[in-house]
Structures are given as structure tokens and as C-alpha cells.
TMM60 protein (Lophotis ruficrista), 134 residues
Amino acid sequence: MRMSLAQRVLLTWLFTLLFLIMLVLKLDEKAPWNWFLIFIPVWIFDTILLVMLIVKMAGRCKSGFDPRNGSQNIKKKAWYLIAMLLKLAFCLALCAKLQRFTAMKLAYVFIPLWALLIGGMIELGYNIFYVRRD
């Protein structure tokens, strides 16, 4: 289940284009679609990424794997999994708010996004300022 860089770029571009076209049609009131329907390309793309990530993480469970070789790698993959789940929570909360399924304040809708951004800044700072002690 390995994709080349060109395939990943093409897939990302395709799902982004589909999402933006559907979003523009909804915002121009040309299509009376549900907000959850608008976000389907985003969720399909996220599902593909989650499946690929889970398959890579499950590969560590096979026999003959040396856990000493990838302790940092599993931490990075765990962060990716948490980030994807935070993004999913934000998208679901945003769709529920836009569709008026809930009377949640907009500040509460953005909590998963803020947590994702703070975690991303911490990860970036860790990668920039981490000094290996060998």
C-alpha cells in the first residue's frame, strides 16, 4: 500500500478541488446540499490517510520487528493519528454548527482546531530545537 509522491499530490489536489467546488456551490446558494455532504471529499481523503497510518502502525506488531529501531517513529505516527482525529472532530463540529444541529458556541467548535495547532507548534518546536544526545 505504497503511493508515489506524484500519486499523493494528485490525490490531494483532486480531493481539495472537489471540496472547493462543492463549497463554492453551497456558498453561492446554487446547491441546497447539507454541510455534511459538502465535506465528503475531506472525509474520504482523511479516511484514506487514516487507513494508511493504521496499516503502518500495525506493521510494528508483526513478528521479527525490532522495537529499538523505531521508538521515535511510533511517537510521530501516534501524533499523526491524534492530529487526524482532532481534524475530524473539528470538521464534524463545524458541520453540526453550520447545519444548525446544535446550539454550540463557535468558540467550542474551534477547540479541536486550536488543540491541533498548539500540538503542531509544539511538534515543530521539538523538531527544530531538539538536540540529539548520542
